[in-house]
């Protein structure tokens, strides 16, 4: 299974929704809490061009936030990406 990393804050409902979706699917992930961590937030902007959380990386490729993750699930594409059958489309 492709490694999943998700950057979150402790006050973000979309972060909780993304984590819940991954848990329902039984997907292990590394959650990195960047609440009050401006250095990590700047790093995220450099990597993704986005200032919002969550920011989700699958196989070290930024795929976006919760809405992007949910869209991949709805389209039936997420399982294949997680299984490494195809690379995720980068932001």
What would you call the structural class? alpha+beta
Beta-strand content bin: 15-25%
- CATH homologous superfamily assignment: Glutaredoxin
Sheet of most strands: 4 strands, mixed
- State the CATH architecture: 3-Layer(aba) Sandwich
Through-space gap between termini: 21 Å
**Named CATH topology:** Glutaredoxin
Shape descriptor = globular
How many separate domains?
A: 1
Unreliable sequence segments: none
Q: Can you give a write-up of this model?
A:
By secondary structure, the chain is of the alpha+beta class. The protein has a single domain, classed as Glutaredoxin (3-Layer(aba) Sandwich). 41% of the residues lie in helices and 19% in strands. The protein has 4 helices and 4 strands. Strands 2-1-3-4 form a 4-stranded mixed beta sheet, sandwiched between helices. α1 packs parallel to α3 (66-74). The chain starts with a strand and ends in a 9-residue tail after the last helix.
Features:
91 residues; single chain; alpha+beta; Glutaredoxin; 19% strand; 4-stranded mixed sheet
Task: Please write out the topology.
Elements: E1 4-8, H1 13-24, E2 30-33, H2 38-48, E3 55-58, E4 61-64, H3 66-74, H4 78-82
Parallel strand pairs: 1-2
Antiparallel strand pairs: 1-3, 3-4
Helix pairs in contact: 1-3
Could you provide a short overview of the structure?
41% of the residues lie in helices and 19% in strands. The protein has 91 residues and is of the alpha+beta class.
